[in-house]
Design goal:
203 residues; alpha+beta; Trefoil (Acidic Fibroblast Growth Factor, subunit A); two-stranded antiparallel ribbon; 12 strands; peptidase inhibitor activity; protease inhibitor; signal; Kunitz_inhibitor_STI-like_sf; Prot_inh_Kunz-lg
């Protein structure tokens, strides 16, 4: 009986340091897994896109089937241009845009970050407050939702993601809908995304 008691005593003494070490390590030295670093969106020169600057959204391939994104009047008509379009050919310059990012996220624009998009126009006094991009109502005749412009309180949330074809970027809504074109109008689509790059507008 005495021998068994001694063995248990020495066993407890041997295990005590391991128990203390384990408790100290887990409570004071947690393992920090590396967090994914945000990937900046780049312009056509390889520089990081700056939300304080203006850019044109230009067709990635520079081929004959697509051009820049621009602001124009939708068929419904309005006192201000209110439709998001894409030129059917390379040549005409698009309407510059600015990317509006959350102020707490830092000075850059990053892939997969929630953003708003606003056209930059010269007629600021009359129409400047109506140039925020938004997803319009579902058009039953065309069976699609076109992108429109509106006021600050009617804006839609978007994300810039790398194109799976490794050619520039795609645009999706924050709930995952793909943005592409129906004819020359920019709309929510099932496929054929709006591949584009950002070309900085010179000040």
């Amino acid at each position: 009986m005495m021998t068994t008691t001694k063995c248990l005593f020495w066993l407890c003494l041997c295990l005590a340091p391991f128990v203390v070490f384990s408790s100290t390590f887990t409570s004071q030295n947690p393992i920090d897994l590396p967090s994914a670093k945000p990937v900046p969106v780049l312009d056509t020169t390889g520089k990081e896109v700056d939300p304080r600057s203006s850019y044109r959204m230009v067709y990635t391939n520079r081929g004959p089937y697509g051009g820049d994104i621009y602001l124009d009047y939708s068929p419904a008509g309005s006192i201000c241009p209110d439709g998001v379009f894409r030129y059917g050919q390379v040549g005409p310059k698009g309407t510059p845009v600015r990317l509006i990012t959350p102020s707490h996220f830092g000075p850059g624009v990053y892939e997969d970050q929630d953003i708003n998009i606003q056209f930059v126009i010269s007629n600021v006094e009359k129409c400047g407050n109506y140039t925020i991009w938004k997803v319009g109502p579902y058009n039953r005749e065309e069976r699609v939702s076109f992108l429109e412009t509106g006021q600050q309180d009617s804006k839609s949330c978007f994300k810039i993601v790398k194109s799976p074809r490794l050619l520039g970027y795609e645009l999706i809504t924050c709930d995952g809908a793909l943005v592409g074109t129906m004819g020359q109008r920019v709309a929510l689509v099932a496929d054929f995304s709006l591949d584009f790059d950002f070309e900085k507008v010179q000040d």
